């Protein structure tokens, strides 16, 4: 139990991932599925950034020509998460564009209604 309290950020990330996963699974609305996917993305970013943070060290930004390599955190996890955020935004915009196309074609964004329309057309 004490490990859960010490690692509360990681526990929060896992809880957020679970919430996003349940939203993704339990809703037929495409917009709600996209929101669930974004919550899952955010939980992954939170987890990796919290793991990469070290107390007592600073971001690797050199100010005034002072350079102490032991005083900085590793910038690779943060850089990877920035790349992940860009990819997540791109995927979200693509999914929203596909949702608009589905709405234009079927008149709804509910997956069960779209499947029923597809069955009736076949």
From TrEMBL:
Q: How does it sit in the membrane?
A: Multi-pass membrane protein
Instruction: Indicate the transmembrane segments per the record.
Output: 6-26, 38-56, 76-98
- Subcellular localization(s) per the UniProt record: Cell membrane
Xref: Pfam families: Oxidored_q2
InterPro entries in UniProt: CPA3_antiporter_subunitC, NUOK/Mnh_C1-like
**Keywords attached to this entry:** Cell membrane, Membrane, Transmembrane, Transmembrane helix
Family assignment? Belongs to the CPA3 antiporters (TC 2.A.63) subunit C family.
Q: How is this protein named in the record?
A: NADH-quinone oxidoreductase subunit K
- Native species of this protein? Helicovermis profundi
